[in-house]
Amino acid sequence: MLKLAVPSKGRLMEQCFDWFADHGVRLSRSGSDREYAGRVEGVENLSLQLLSAGEIPRELGAGRIDLGVTGTDLVREKLAGWRSVVTELAPMGFGHADLVLAVPAGWRDCETLDDFAAIARDFRRAHGFRLRIATKYHRLVRAWLSAHEVADYQLVDSQGATEGTVANLTAEAIADITSSGETLRANHLKILGEPPILQSQATLFASRAANADEVAALMRKLGL
């Protein structure tokens, strides 16, 4: 029996249900919105759990679920060496969002990452500490900045609304996920004119601890 987890609420859950229905498998809640088990019709040996999208990478990594739908950003952020832990089975075509670096709109001379690196160097000299970037994505942001040889910064953890940290004077820039950029603009931030740190979407993953034959049989059933 394979254990599948999908996001437990909202638009992502509905889109997951629609995607599986389009592939011949019907998923549904077992009961009320407060219950986190589900029903599966159209395929045998598959059970359904409803979890938060942020929990699913951890459960896949621990082998407590066999299959999970979550964002590529969450898997790559939460699972070190993610390729050795999970297998990416199928991008699902929804839940698109970009992880981006954004700075105050008033930084008129900051349009590229090279501009940002120069500002960060000047900031450290002027203030005696490194420019702060608020983010929930420490692993991904640190690796990206390192690859682009940006060093004069510090990451500060954001547990709430990341886009508000610049206005609250707890950071000078942010790295956050966005689908349209509207919230960033509303908070007087602009995205650097660079390719995003990561382009994410909802994706079906399998734990490498899952039974490979059962996973392959399910993928055939889904027509993938």
From TrEMBL:
E.C. number(s) listed in UniProt: 2.4.2.17
Protein's pathway: Amino-acid biosynthesis; L-histidine biosynthesis; L-histidine from 5-phospho-alpha-D-ribose 1-diphosphate: step 1/9
Keyword Transferase recorded: yes
Domain ATP phosphoribosyltransferase catalytic: 53-221
Reaction catalyzed: 1-(5-phospho-beta-D-ribosyl)-ATP + diphosphate = 5-phospho-alpha-D-ribose 1-diphosphate + ATP
CDD domains, per database record: PBP2_HisGL3
InterPro entries per UniProt: ATP_PRibTrfase_cat, ATP_PRibTrfase_HisG
UniProt keyword Transmembrane present: no
One cellular component (GO) term of this entry: cytoplasm
Family annotation (PANTHER family): ATP PHOSPHORIBOSYLTRANSFERASE, ATP PHOSPHORIBOSYLTRANSFERASE ATP-PRTASE
Protein name: ATP phosphoribosyltransferase
Species of the source: Paracoccus zhejiangensis
Lineage of origin: Bacteria, Pseudomonadati, Pseudomonadota, Alphaproteobacteria, Rhodobacterales
